């Protein structure tokens, strides 16, 4: 057993043949090289000593290593720091004993090595753990191995479990505040894409669809967005563009580390202005693309985000009545969403983490985004008085939006939207079902014919009582229909009260979100609810009931 110790809090250990050879208060274990030389025939130690190569040079250790007899086994553990006065000659001696990693040892790195005189190759029993870019303590090494009389070796240097990520280290040295990204335990991890296991999808159009990331001020949130973007199976990093305010050039360097494209934009007075510039720039960079995925600040993507968008893109390709898609559900709370496979049609635009068709951009937005799209995406964009948008969106969201930290805490609408517990898919790729306009309407009518009705009494309680929560235990059917009356098509008072009763998101001065042809769908206590004004044609199947 070998243990490198833990910074300056725990001493290193070496145990061989059931006997502790080095430990706290045993054989002076501590900083530098902790070395035991074992006779492979008798299994008895011939030397147990520490060489503090932080304080003094390594000549004494070189002498002991060079004096080993053929077949002798050396066990070495570096703790705290052993690189400061380690000579090149000593490194070469360790190379001859089987080390392939000693030349990589730097300040405060920890290392263990089991080699042998006349090994004739490179030992398979060696590991190094790198210190942080600013000298933070590395992750300790603790290994228990069975060592035969002939130490296992290879003619080719074995691949190390870790290697220094010099570009990432340089970034972390230059920029402060990247807590997890620059943590010593993670700083040398490679930033790589995830293989697409289903090879039949390699030519899917989604992998040729560009994505633009629009960072905000929170640089740790930017990292999380980039990390979860890179985790999308099959993604092509060169199809990802990170735009950033010219005063935050570090975001460009960060994007380069992930293999993404990046573009500096002139300074903006608001995030909304920055978003407009980013979308316009993305269409210039990817001018041949038919679609664009837009990722706002502080979003974390589910692992099946791109897969979900692929399903939506296929639906948009075959259904001209659709104008986009979002990966986020306004009503995707823990209490009001349930089914990962369900996709809604909604008269909203554009949503969060949205898929934008070029034809919609060119017809309604190009050269006019300052007028149509000067609000945050979650507030909705108004494209034209003659245009009723239809987009696809999930029941369970495929992105998680971090709580809105810079918000006015008195703004109850944003508190309700971003601080209430939400559902986000964590189960990997899920089969989802999209519908054309006709088939979706048929699906709604089918649900209604098989549904139970919410009683007028409970509807009245929902509307009039402040803390009424409908019970579903006595309802045997899986779907519940809510029929209500309103005086005019744009009179949403009753529906807002129902939203409040069930815990759905709404704003007092605007239509409720997720409406489609006057109906709204959601889950509540394991029941699928369909609510709408009885005068809408889609509800005529139940008018007599």
Notes on the structure:
This protein is α+β, with helices and mostly antiparallel strands. The protein has three domains: 2-154, no CATH class; 200-242 and 263-434, Alpha-Beta Complex (Spore Coat Polysaccharide Biosynthesis Protein SpsA, Chain A), CATH 3.90.550.10; 440-542, no CATH class. 23% of the residues lie in helices and 20% in strands. The protein contains 13 helices and 25 strands. It has helices at residues 59-66, 88-96, 166-174, 219-230, 250-257, 271-285, 305-318, 358-365, 369-372, 412-418, 437-449, 456-464, 493-502; strands at 2-3, 13-16, 19-22, 32-38, 45-51, 73-79, 110-116, 122-123, 126-129, 142-143, 153-154, 211-213, 240-245, 261-265, 291-295, 299-301, 324-326, 343-346, 354-357, 391-394, 399-401, 452-453, 479-484, 519-524, 527-533. The strands form six sheets. It has an eight-stranded mixed beta sheet with strand order 14-13-12-15-19-17-20-18, sandwiched between helices. A five-stranded antiparallel beta sheet has the order 5-4-6-7-9, with helices on one face. Helix 1 runs parallel beside helix 2 (88-96) and helix 12 packs across helix 13. It is elongated and about 100 Å long. The N and C termini lie far apart (76 Å).
* Unreliably modeled segments: none
CATH architecture of the largest domain: Alpha-Beta Complex
Computed Rg: 31 Å
Question: How far is the N terminus from the C terminus?
Answer: 76 Å
What's the helical proportion of residues? Answer: 10-25%
Strand content: 15-25%
Secondary structure category: alpha+beta
Give the overall average pLDDT. 92
Function: Initiates complex N-linked carbohydrate formation. Essential for the conversion of high-mannose to hybrid and complex N-glycans.
EC number: 2.4.1.101
Keywords: Glycosyltransferase, Golgi apparatus, Manganese, Membrane, Metal-binding, Signal-anchor, Transferase, Transmembrane, Transmembrane helix
Pfam families: GNT-I, ILEI
């Amino acid at each position: 057993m070998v243990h490198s110790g833990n910074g300056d809090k725990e001493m290193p250990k070496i145990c061989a043949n059931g006997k502790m050879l080095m430990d706290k208060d045993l054989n002076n274990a501590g900083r530098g090289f902790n070395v035991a030389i074992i006779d492979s025939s008798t299994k008895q130690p011939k030397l147990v000593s520490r060489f503090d190569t932080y304080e003094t040079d390594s000549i004494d250790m070189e002498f002991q290593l060079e004096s080993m007899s053929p077949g002798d086994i050396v066990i070495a553990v570096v703790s705290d720091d052993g690189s400061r006065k380690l000579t090149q000659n000593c490194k070469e001696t360790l190379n001859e004993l089987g080390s392939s990693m000693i030349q990589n040892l730097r300040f405060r790195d920890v290392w263990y090595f089991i080699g042998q005189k006349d090994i004739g190759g490179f030992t398979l029993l060696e590991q190094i753990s790198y210190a942080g870019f600013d000298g933070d303590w590395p992750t300790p090494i603790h290994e228990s191995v069975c060592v035969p009389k002939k130490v296992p070796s290879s003619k080719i240097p074995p691949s190390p479990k870790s290697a220094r990520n010099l570009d990432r280290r340089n970034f972390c040295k230059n920029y402060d505040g990247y807590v997890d990204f620059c943590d010593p335990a993670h700083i040398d991890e490679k930033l790589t894409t995830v293989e697409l296991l289903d090879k039949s999808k390699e030519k899917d159009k989604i992998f040729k669809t560009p994505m633009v990331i629009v960072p905000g001020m929170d640089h740790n949130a930017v990292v999380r967005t980039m990390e979860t973007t890179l985790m999308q199976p099959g993604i092509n990093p060169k199809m990802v563009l990170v735009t950033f305010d010219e005063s935050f050039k570090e975001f460009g360097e960060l994007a380069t580390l992930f293999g993404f494209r990046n573009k500096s934009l002139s300074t903006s007075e608001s995030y909304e202005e920055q978003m407009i510039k980013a979308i316009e720039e993305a269409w210039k960079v990817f001018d041949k693309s038919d679609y664009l995925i837009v990722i706002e600040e502080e979003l974390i993507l589910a692992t099946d985000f791109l897969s979900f968008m692929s399903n939506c893109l296929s639906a948009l390709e075959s259904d001209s009545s659709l104008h986009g898609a979002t990966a986020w559900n306004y009503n995707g709370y823990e209490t009001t969403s349930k089914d990962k496979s369900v996709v809604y049609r909604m008269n909203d635009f554009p949503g969060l983490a949205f898929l934008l068709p070029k034809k919609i951009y060119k017809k309604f937005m190009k050269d006019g985004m300052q007028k149509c799209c000067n609000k945050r995406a979650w507030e909705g964009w108004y494209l034209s008085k003659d245009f009723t948008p239809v987009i696809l969106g999930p029941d369970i969201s495929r992105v998680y939006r971090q709580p809105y930290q810079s918000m006015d805490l008195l703004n109850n609408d944003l508190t309700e939207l971003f601080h209430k517990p939400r559902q986000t898919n964590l189960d990997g790729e899920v089969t989802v079902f999209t519908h054309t306009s006709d088939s979706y309407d048929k699906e709604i009518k089918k649900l209604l014919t098989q549904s139970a009705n919410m009683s007028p009494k409970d509807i009245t309680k929902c509307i009039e009582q402040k803390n009424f929560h409908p019970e579903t235990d006595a309802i045997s059917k899986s779907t519940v229909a809510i029929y209500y009356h309103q005086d005019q098509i744009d009179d949403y008072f009753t529906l807002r009260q129902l939203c409040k009763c069930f815990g759905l998101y709404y704003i007092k001065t605007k239509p409720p979100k997720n409406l489609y042809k006057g109906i709204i769908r959601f889950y509540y206590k394991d029941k699928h609810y369909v609510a709408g004004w009885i005068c809408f044609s889609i509800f005529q199947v139940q008018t007599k009931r």
